[in-house]
Design goal:
- By secondary structure, the chain is mainly alpha-helical.
- It has a domain at 1-71.
- Helices cover 41% and strands 4% of the residues.
- The chain has ten helices and four strands, in the order H-H-H-H-H-H-E-E-E-E-H-H-H-H.
- It has helices at 2-13, 22-26, 30-45, 53-70, 131-139, 153-166, 224-227, 231-237, 271-294, 300-326, and strands at 177-180, 193-196, 202-203, 211-212.
- It has a two-stranded antiparallel ribbon with strand order 1-2. The chain has a two-stranded antiparallel ribbon with strand order 3-4.
- A hairpin with a 7-residue loop joins strand 3 and strand 4.
- The protein is globular, with a radius of gyration of 23 Å.
- It starts with a helix and ends with a helix.
């Protein structure tokens, strides 16, 4: 009876859902199928970013639930997640743990990257067509397109600032890979050749997905780009006075004895990313000053934790509300 009911409801729902999603919806529970219809309708109307706050939060919660249930493939065996009370960890941890109430290790540093589709092993076809040829033919700008005041170099700084917060593959430092541009596009590539470390593969313990890559950053929107993704890095960026982070007197990133900038993540960085790191370190410290003035009884650790929550929320707000809705198509 339940099967017949589900089949009938799926047939009705299909009338309102694009055919590309019929197969996905057929695998959902009845409740999730209706939730998908709700999200799908909002997407077709293109009004998600104009929804009232409460409805917008409900929309995002439903979308996240559907993605987690039906659009992600787990990679790598992990210890069984232990549920915990969010009230026990009302702050951002150093390594990204204790964010998911159902699994304390979810999204922590060193977690496997999940997948949206099963891997296809075709090493012999990996360079066909050559990625440099693809990039040159598809991305080369044939004529200048003026974006007026909407888009500039700060955009490149910002998106890299976000990537430094979210993801980076652990590398195999025992070997290097070199890519050389084919002759047909060599004179059109800014980098005719470059070397890099390949992604390190780890055994997953799974039969169908034998290996996977691990994230050396924390994928949560936790500001790890300025705080670091582990306890060791966090210890290096903190002053341990009034909850503040280290910053030089001239407002730029402080440097260690080797001349290396002190910040949460400095891998493959440049002036654009460093500028934003310095900006949000100063934002964090300004929040600490405000909190200390309003709540003089807060100690160093409490000031740091609250200021990090505020600062990481500001970063997320800028990207979701300011950046996303104004980025040129």
């Amino acid at each position: 009876m339940a099967f017949i009911t589900k089949t009938l409801l799926n047939n009705i729902l299909r009338r309102f859902i694009h055919q590309d999603f019929h197969e996905a919806v057929s695998s959902m529970t009845i409740t999730d199928a209706f939730l998908f219809l709700m999200v799908h309708s909002v997407d077709k109307l293109g009004i998600w970013h104009r929804l009232p706050v409460i409805l917008g939060l409900i929309y995002l919660a439903v979308r996240r639930h559907l993605h987690q249930q039906y659009n992600l493939i787990n990679v790598g065996k992990t210890p069984s997640g232990v549920r915990f009370s969010p009230g026990d960890y009302p702050y951002r941890t150093a390594d990204g743990s204790y964010n998911d109430p159902f699994n304390e290790g979810a999204g922590s540093q060193g977690s496997f990257f999940g997948r949206n589709i099963m891997p296809v092993h075709q090493t012999d076809k990996l360079m066909k067509p050559d990625p440099m040829v693809v990039a040159t033919k598809l991305l080369t700008r044939t004529q200048y397109k003026d974006t007026d005041k909407q888009f500039n170099m700060i955009a490149a700084s910002w998106i890299q600032f976000m990537i430094h917060d979210w993801i980076d593959h652990m590398e195999n430092t025992n070997q290097k890979v070199e890519l050389i541009a084919p002759k047909e596009v060599a004179n059109k590539c800014p980098l005719s050749s470059f070397k890099f470390y390949p992604t390190r593969e780890f055994p997953t313990g799974f039969y169908d997905i034998k290996s996977g890559a691990k994230n050396i950053r924390t994928p949560w929107w936790d500001g790890s780009v300025i705080y670091g993704s582990n306890k060791e890095r966090l210890q290096k960026v903190r002053t341990f006075t009034d909850g503040k982070l280290k910053i030089s007197e001239d407002g730029l990133l402080q440097q260690d004895e080797d001349g290396i900038p002190i910040s949460g993540d400095i891998r493959n960085s440049w002036a654009g990313v460093s500028t934003l790191q310095a900006l949000f370190i100063k934002e964090h410290n300004a929040v600490c000053d405000t909190l200390k003035k309003e709540y003089p009884d807060l100690n160093d650790e409490e000031l740091y934790r609250y200021a990090r929550l505020v600062t990481s929320a500001v970063i997320a707000k800028i990207h979701t509300i300011d950046w996303t809705v104004t980025t040129p198509e």
